[in-house]
From TrEMBL:
Superkingdom of origin: Bacteria
Pfam families recorded: His_Phos_1
SMART domains: PGAM
GO molecular function: phosphatase activity
Any one Gene Ontology cellular component term annotated for this protein: cytoplasm
Protein name: Broad specificity phosphatase PhoE
Organism of provenance: Psychromicrobium silvestre
UniProt-listed SUPFAM superfamilies: Phosphoglycerate mutase-like (SSF53254)
Length: 220
């Protein structure tokens, strides 16, 4: 059976001086540090290619921060940058708010907390996993068609969709403490396949040197 690898890349740091939960809002661009993170990831993937990896397919969420994170890798690898709507950030009823305990305790938001296991404040976890798995499987097949056995794909997405997909692949419960997510800015969640079967999931932080001092809005 053919082997393939799909890398789930979280976008880099976003310029967000007001600290809002930007969710699917348009025109949230990478900060200078976020651009540096994107360049560091491009260098990482270029090094893999130089070592013999076949980097065959690249796609990103349609949101600005994901597209800007993907562009340096597209340039470094000579790949077209495809857009996949299935990689988009999770929908969230608190989008646009500067989230704080005092804000969330307002009665107008209470209805969104009726079922935290779903979660009721946004797109259900299982729906996020379902669309991400469709994107992952499509990328795997596209990479194999373009690059043959052993080909690799890169998908640029967002923290929550990546993390719940990671949990699902490890057959863990999807409900979790957001503070415990192993999915920092510009991190990689790498999925190995043999045929259509997942044979391994690993996590890495190629841009770790740029993380100290970086801003990361919870849920973004």
């Amino acid at each position: 059976m053919s082997q393939a690898t799909v890398h789930l890349l979280r976008h880099g740091e976003v310029f967000n001086p007001d600290g809002v939960l930007y969710g699917r809002l348009p025109e949230f661009h990478l900060s200078d540090r976020g651009v540096a993170m994107a360049v560091r990831l491009a260098e990482h993937f270029r090094a893999l290619a130089d070592d013999g990896a076949t980097m065959a397919y690249l796609a990103a969420s349609p949101l600005t921060r994901a597209q800007e994170t993907a562009q340096p890798s597209a340039t470094a690898l000579g790949l077209d940058l495809n857009t996949d709507e299935r990689l988009i950030e999770a929908q969230n009823h608190f989008e646009g708010l500067k989230v704080s305990a005092s804000e969330l305790l307002k009665p107008k938001y209470w209805r969104y907390f009726r079922n935290p296991f779903l979660p009721s404040w946004g797109e259900p976890y299982r729906e996020q996993v379902a669309r991400m798995r469709l994107a992952i499987d499509a990328a795997r097949l596209e990479a194999l068609e373009r690059g043959g056995d052993g080909a690799q794909a890169i998908l640029v997405s967002h923290q929550l969709p990546i993390w719940v997909t990671h949990l699902s692949l490890q057959k863990r419960q999807l409900f979790h403490d957001p503070r415990a997510r192993e999915c920092t800015l510009a991190s990689l969640t790498t999925i190995n396949f043999e045929g259509s079967e997942v044979t391994g999931v690993r996590y890495s932080e190629p841009a770790a040197a740029l993380l100290p001092g970086a801003a990361s809005t919870p849920g973004a």
